[in-house]
Amino acid sequence: MTSPIIIALDYSSREEVMAFLNQFNQPLFVKVGMELFYKEGPAFIKEIKELGHKIFLDLKLHDIPNTVKQAMKNLAKLDVDLVNVHAAGGSKMMKAALEGLVEGTPEGKQRPLLIAVTQLTSTSNEQVVEEQGISSLTTSISLYAKLTEESGLDGVVCSPLDVEIVREAAKGEGFVTVTPGIRLAENSADDQVRITTPAKARELGSNYIVVGRSITKSENPVQTYEKIVSQWEGVTV
Ligand SMILES: O=C(O)c1cc(=O)[nH]c(=O)n1[C@@H]1O[C@H](COP(=O)(O)O)[C@@H](O)[C@H]1O
């Protein structure tokens, strides 16, 4: 997967996305989430793909194993590069997701990478302790990362601040960390809790960062994107 910077296209219509993408004259790695997919559907995925962009289809599947497997079979036909589930669905569900993806990928095509969300970047330690009765956020992230790797998935979604915990729990060389919760120094957290900058994310070992509003809501998205790319590239790893 080319660019390590994944732009979250959190728009609600095709028109807004096209206006955004038309400002760039280079292939991007973009993320299509629920807001856009529920409005524009598979046809728009195909259109974005035909423009030459890589796609992370972020639908965060979480259901009984059979339902997730059948859904993944359908997603596999969309020729996207990356898809995800919630690790909280458990190992049986994650294995079923992978089976569905393998079965659904057309012959001669590469199956999309499959990753699992550990704990959302909008979640705090207090929240998981109080609302989910979990001993700590760190324990939960560590357990989910290990379970994800043991289930045969390709990596996790986590905060850059969690990458160290993930690497301790899942030691496979090619296990990828895709990390949202990115803010430029001057930006506010919005609804995110566990955030950091692009440069710090790379220092912490993230393989990919997911950036939404810092780019899409900026006055000059192309310039902001370039700034993030140069911050990322400026870090020696
Ligand atoms: O799976 C994701 O992409 C995801 C997981 C997570 O824990 N936190 C998280 O923010 N995301 C997504 O990453 C993007 C972050 O957007 P911004 O906060 O605007 O940069 C959104 O599209 C979220 O849906």
From TrEMBL:
Gene Ontology terms: cellular component: cytosol
Catalysed reaction, written as an equation: orotidine 5'-phosphate + H(+) = UMP + CO2
Gene Ontology biological process terms from the UniProt entry: 'de novo' pyrimidine nucleobase biosynthetic process; 'de novo' UMP biosynthetic process
PROSITE patterns xrefs: OMPDECASE
EC numbers on record: 4.1.1.23
Pathway connected to this protein: Pyrimidine metabolism; UMP biosynthesis via de novo pathway; UMP from orotate: step 2/2
Record-annotated Orotidine 5'-phosphate decarboxylase domain positions: 4-228
A GO MF term: orotidine-5'-phosphate decarboxylase activity
SUPFAM superfamilies named among the record's database cross-references: Ribulose-phoshate binding barrel (SSF51366)
Keyword terms: Decarboxylase, Lyase, Pyrimidine biosynthesis
List of residues binding substrate: 10, 31, 58-67, 121, 183, 192, 212-213
Protein name according to UniProt: Orotidine 5'-phosphate decarboxylase
Classification lineage: Bacteria, Bacillati, Bacillota, Bacilli, Bacillales
Gene name of the encoded protein: pyrF
